[in-house]
Amino acid sequence: GRLVFPIGLGELLPAHKKYLQGRGFDWQEIERLWGIRGLGPLGELKWRIWVPIHYRGEVVSWTTRSISDKVKTRYWSARSDQEKISLRKVLYGFDYVQHVCICVEGPVDVWRIGPGAVATLGTGFSQAQVRLIDSIPKKIICFDAEPAAQKRAERLINSLASPGSVDNVILETGKDPGDCSQ
What we know:
four-stranded parallel sheet; 9 strands; single chain; alpha/beta; five-stranded antiparallel sheet
């Protein structure tokens, strides 16, 4: 495949920075560590944070997060013709993992936990993602606390070849890791 970037991609604008700060993030740290950029008023993906998906040191795909919670679709990802490798074949944050990973749903959850966390980019997951998770000796699953997400977490755990080396963490506070305090 060939990586194609969305129209309007540029630096983080004040609205992006305000959104990140409002969620308790240091936008400079997130920008430096995860390589995020901004989408402003141009193109079809207006006012979003662009999140590059790395695999083996290379950007292979991307997703975006709206900075408004009033939109119908919070996350919008690259189409198959815009990806070098399908985001369903990789895990967001996998390049930072060594022998332990905390598997969550989305990039914002990964940012909150930090390096060592990976995201399936939703509660759905592919066999390729299962194989990547299985390649890590110690696994912790931390999907959203809602019942539907916990059912998917159980499906993920049962899909792993070595489910005995997996813990499922259910948060008592916050909807998901991204909503928790540091």
